[in-house]
Amino acid sequence: PALPAPDVAAVAAVHRTALSQGAPGALTRIDEGRRSYRVATGEADTAAHTPMDTGRRFRVGSVSKTFTSVVLLQLVAEGKVDLDAPANRYLPEPLPDERITVRHLLSHRSGLYDYTNDMFYNTVPGFEAVRNKVFSYQELIDLSTVKPLNNAPGAAYSYSNTNFVALGAIIEHVTGTPVATHYRQRIFTPLGLKHTSYVHPRTTISGTYARGYLRQDDTTLPLVDSTEQTVSWAQSAGAVISNAKDLNRFFSALLSGKLLPEEQLREMTTMVPVTADGKQSYGLGLRGRTLSCGTTVYGHTGTVQGYYTYAFTTSDGRRSMASLANTSNNGTVNTTLGATLDASFCGTDPA
Ligand SMILES: CC1(C)S[C@@H]2[C@H](NC(=O)CCCC[C@H](NC(=O)C[NH3+])C(=O)[O-])C(=O)N2[C@H]1C(=O)[O-]
After folding, report:
1. CA 1 – ligand 1 centroid, Å
2. Atom of ligand 1 nearest to the CA of 61
3. Can you give the pLDDT at residue 1?
4. Measured from the CB, is residue 74 less than 6 Å from ligand 1?
5. Residue 350 pLDDT > 60, yes or no?
6. Hey, which bits of 33-145 come out as E strands?
7. What is the mean pLDDT of the chain?
8. Rounded to an integer, what distance in angstroms lies between the CA atom of residue 335 and that of residue 116?
9. Tens-digit pLDDT profile for residues 44-64
10. φ and ψ of 60, to 5 deg
11. Tally of CB atoms within 10 A around 17
């Protein structure tokens, strides 16, 4: 059945609420075939008072995990990696438990502890301590493996950045090529994603972009401009830069079968519920959300200092939406921004 038209007024209302809750700006772009709907609100740069516009680039955080998953699953299709083999078969240094498989890493079921829990316990000091740091994959994995597993491998879903850092290490160890090259050759160039890049460990964003503003734990203090950072604490788990048009093109191409053979796309979209109400699920580097109108959309969310992202598409890739609010450490804004999904795919302002 055809989807109801996007409720653009509802998207604008969601943006206004997010601004009232502390976001300097927000943008949403919806693409469906040749039609696009664009809503930009507030400021991209609060010092220069530059208005937000939907073409601006931004840090996408964990939306990067889907890009990493595509590369890994292409390697699976090429016979270079076996999803159900021990991850240790493909790593330069072993993880502490031989039972952890590549599939466990892609589905956040390895149990590996997430080192960012400690790294960012104190939000701004934690960020400033790593803002210009460059980590190796192994340094990040070591930060995790000093802690016990959250669960036995395969026994539960427990989201961890460590999983996608380990997957980046696997991609580089198996192919001898940096993930940046794989992103570019396998995804960015074939799809013509001209506004998407992976420039780790460079701290600057090229082209026209939104600045990002990190809220302090003492919320009475001013926002911290967190735009420039290496994102080396995340790399293949969170360091991609893109814009709304490119993210829509990426997720639409992915779900319409342009990036993966049928078998690997089926593996990726085999979703496991991760919330009690079953409305949120996770596949392999891919989130599923069932919306108020019953439509299930597929994509990923992102939280990186100064940037909240939602990027989702329909199961056939026909309609895609990307939303950004240029703040973080503000859960209220993050939840509010999520309502752009209902407005974009259900055509209604959520009750
Ligand atoms: C699962 C998530 C939410 S967290 C994970 C990843 N982002 C991070 O791990 C960064 C966490 C700290 C970010 C920081 N917060 C603090 O420092 C709090 N003390 C802020 O808000 O900027 C990402 O992106 N994923 C999101 C995802 O997948 O949606």
Report:
1. 35
2. 24
3. 72
4. no
5. no
6. 35-45, 50-51, 58-59
7. 98
8. 21
9. 999 999 999 999 999 999 999
10. -95, -5
11. 16
Question: 88-144 pLDDT, tens per residue?
Answer: 999 999 999 999 999 999 999 999 999 999 999 999 999 999 999 999 999 999 999
Complex ipTM > 0.85: yes
Residue 348: per-residue pLDDT:
62
pTM for the model stands at: 0.98
Instruction: Please tell me the distance between residue 3's alpha carbon and the centre of ligand 1 in angstroms.
Output: 31
CA of 130 to the centre of ligand 1 (A): 14
Q: Which residues of 206-215 are buried (b: 16+ CB within 10 A; e: fewer)?
A: eeebbbbbbb
DSSP state of 4: P
Catalytic residues, by residue number, are 62
303 lines ligand 1 (CB under 6 A): yes
Cα of 90 from ligand 1 centre, angstroms: 27
SS3 content of the chain, % helix, strand, coil (to 5): 35, 20, 45
Q: State the Cα–Cα distance between residues 7 and 344, nearest whole angstrom.
A: 6
Per residue, the 3-state secondary structure of 135-184, as one string, reads CCHHHHHHHHHCCCCCCCCCCCCCCCHHHHHHHHHHHHHHHCCCHHHHHH
Q: What is the atom index within ligand 1 of the atom nearest the CA of 123? A: 17
Q: Are 317 and 252 in contact (CB under 8 A)?
A: yes
The DSSP symbol for 8 reads: H
Of the pLDDT bands very low, low, confident and very high (cuts 50, 70, 90), residue 2 is confident
pLDDT at 300: 99
**Cα separation of 58 and 311, whole Å?**
13
Ligand 1 atom closest to residue 127's alpha carbon, by position in its atom list: 17
User: pLDDT per residue over 135-185, tens digit each?
Assistant: 999 999 999 999 999 999 999 999 999 999 999 999 999 999 999 999 999
Assess whether the C-beta atom of 238 lies below 6 angstroms from ligand 1. Answer: yes
- Asked whether 333 and 324 are in contact (CB, 8 A), the reply is no
